[in-house]
Amino acid sequence: MQLLLDYIPIVVFILAYFYKDIFFATGVLMAVMPLVLFVQWLLTKKLNKIYAASTVLVLVLGGFTLAFRNVTFLAWKPTVLNWAIAIAFLGSQWIGEKTFVERMLGSAAQLKSEQWIRLNQIWVVFFVFVGSINLYVYYTFSEAFWVKFKLFGMLGITLVFVVIQSIWLTMTAQKNDTASSDSEA
What we know:
mainly alpha
C-alpha cells in the first residue's frame, strides 16, 4: 500500500504532463503530494520523513519552476532528495547506534556490524548514482524522455537494486548462520 501511495504523484504528474505540459504537471504534482502525505498520515498515524522531505522539495522547487518558467528547478528535485538521503545514510554510520539500513532491515537479517556498515555504504552509492543518473538523463535527453524516466527508469533501477540487495542479504545471512553453527560444533 505504501509503495502504491508513493507512486501516485509521479503517475499523476506523467498523465498531467502528457495531457498539457510540464508547468501544468508541476502544479498538479504540487497539489497531489501534500494530499498523499496527509492520506499516508491518516492511514498510519506516522509521518514518512522521506516523503515529507520530497513534498517540501516539490513545493519549493516546483514553485521556482512555475515562478521562473524554468523546468531545471523541478528536474533537480530527485537529485537533491537522493543526495540528501545519501548524506543522511552516510552520517548514520557515526551518529546513533545503528546505521539507517540496519534500522530498516535489522529484523529481516542477522548481520555483523561491519556487514551492516558495508550495506549502508552500498545504499549511499545507490542514492548518489540515482541522483546523478537523473541529471544525466535530464541534461542529455528530451524533456518527455526525462519525464518517463522519472517513473519507469528510476523505478526499474530501484527494483534491480532491491533484488540484488535481497540476494546479497540472504547469502550473507546464510554464511553467517553456517559460520555460527560451525563454530558451535
